[in-house]
Amino acid sequence: MNIHVHKQLSKLPSIFIKNAGIVTAGNASGICDGATAIIISNEGALKKYNLKPLARLVGYHKQLSDIDLFDINEAFAPQFLVCQKVLILPNEKRNLNGGAIALGHPCAASGARITANRVYELRCRQGKYAIGVACIRGWSRHCFVIGTNLNI
């Protein structure tokens, strides 16, 4: 990182804990405009309208070693770093296209953005499973597993 940029970032005030916190405007995602849509269907509608799904919601019954890609929507950089450290996520499997800090954090659209990114990244890499994690109401998390192997 450029030393000048590092010095400027270190001067930013903390957001949550005045004069003592580590979350600043420099390491937090920006709130931005965005819109997304995802169609979720059952088998009957797929057959009725002759649709071919891109992926399937799989559920929670997978081991971390089964997962090809992770997308942890980081509203704040420290929160992502804790997740990476606790889960020991390999660099080549997580937030490959950037997260909310790089791409923005469109309120009420981040979950669909994460889902679409994971589906297309899985298809490009010929992977089977991805986990997407999104913030809800600050610190609580919502996690989902998607799979491109449609014979699951």
UniProtKB/TrEMBL annotation:
UniProt keyword terms in alphabetical order: Acyltransferase, Transferase
GO MF terms, alphabetically ordered: acetyl-CoA C-acetyltransferase activity
Domain Thiolase C-terminal: 63-142
One GO cellular component term noted in the UniProt record for this chain: mitochondrion
Domain of life: Eukaryota
Pfam families xrefs: Thiolase_C, Thiolase_N
Domain spans labelled Thiolase N-terminal: 7-43
Family: Belongs to the thiolase-like superfamily. Thiolase family.
Record-given protein name: Uncharacterized protein
Source species: Rotaria magnacalcarata
